[in-house]
Amino acid sequence: MTNLAEQELIDVGDMDVVAFNDFAAEQGWSDGLPLYLPTEQAVLRMVETVRGDNRPFAPISPRQVLPTLHGLAANAVMAGCRPEYFPAVTAALRAVLDPDYNLHGTLATTHPCAPMLMVNGPARKNLGINCGSNCFGQGWRANAAIGRALALILLNVGGAKPGEMDRATQGSPAKYSYCFGENEEESPWEPYHVRRGFAASDSVVTAMSAEPPHNINDHGSTSGEGLLTTISNTVGQPGANTIYGRGPLFVVLGPEHAQTLHRDGFTIETMQEEIWRRSRVHVSKVSKENQESYAGFNRPREGDWYPLTPSPADIHIAVAGGAGKHSAFIASFGGTKASAVRIAP
Amino acid sequence: MRIYNPGFALAAAGGEKIDLKPVDWKSDAIALFSNSKPNARELLDGLKAKLSGLRTVTNIDYVAKNSASQPAPSDLIEKVAANYRGALLAIAD
Prior knowledge:
The complex is a heterodimer of chains A (345) and B (93).
Chain A lengths: L8 E3 L5 H11 L12 H9 L16 E3 L1 H11 L6 H11 L6 H6 L5 E7 L2 H5 L13 H16 L22 E3 L10 H4 L8 E7 L3 E4 L6 H12 L6 H4 L3 E5 L1 H9 L4 H11 L2 E2 L5 H9 L8 E2 L8 E5 L6 E6 L7 E4 L3
Parallel strand pairs in A: 3-4, 7-10
Antiparallel strand pairs in A: 3-5, 5-12, 6-11, 7-11, 8-9
Chain B lengths: L1 E3 L4 E3 L18 E5 L5 H12 L8 E5 L9 H10 L2 E5 L3
Parallel strand pairs in B: 3-4, 3-5
């Protein structure tokens, strides 16, 4: 019997999309949603879009194998990507292969983390990535397909099979797809990628191993001070993985909240400082057993407080979404970093 | 019709299997390796207690990663490989 895993090209005969989806499920290639057929032509069209980018990829965990462009493109096709999305998919893969991202740990953990992707720069408009209303939700092919392509790559090339190498206790819907763009046009501050040292004209994918977005509702506060109180107290919760894993988190401000904070004089740095200080978890909210456990992890509290990130700079602030008085915070796995990679032109 | 295999990949260099030397679990020095998750130490304590009925335990040591969420540093793995004939890993959670 032929081992399909060793064949880059597979002759499947005369197979329609329904039969292919049954076949893909049998092979373990499916995330449960319908897949496009990774035909020879479709994959080659995808690969052509990254021909100028010859940088090698690091081995992908947990299988520790080297991907081929055709194998990656097959996943992008199956996810529903248009060919022009593929450079963003390969940039996202490079971001999660950054050793500081800790791909193996983030895939094998019982925590429900998924690779959150935020896109900055011209690619948002060129690819049609939603940065505005319902940016974390459904309805936009680029958001859905780019995030899904990375998830399928990690499943099929990386080998992070649910219940096997992906040991998530509950997982989350973010594991299907998790991609949005920063609403740079409605942000009162410099775009996120520019603050990280990229040119405004660069297109950049930032990846963080993250929980799904948690809503921060505040319709009542009309001051930046009031908003920061709500934001910080929503972020600061004792069930966070980062209380002992220590890692970054994102605060994604809705444009209306961002405008209020900016009007009241808050900068990115002052918001980071304030959220870091105010989101620390008071010892009274942490069980005795956990206090002992965290001390054993060499994560002693600071006075009566447990900080959720190593430093204020680990609180990443971006602006996304549309009209309304909502923001979001996105908690990370903990032992990870937000890794940013430029999309090859 | 031909399709590209979405699971296709190449073996990374350095992934060759090596022959392991046999371990004499009744006498060789062994490491009790914790993944630094809650209760890993308790699991290893139980294991050490059980082993004490079968062998001397003066050459059994505890080793732990410095982070539950990050991989063991390579120098720690090399140190274990250099100093012990076997290691028992507690994957607690």
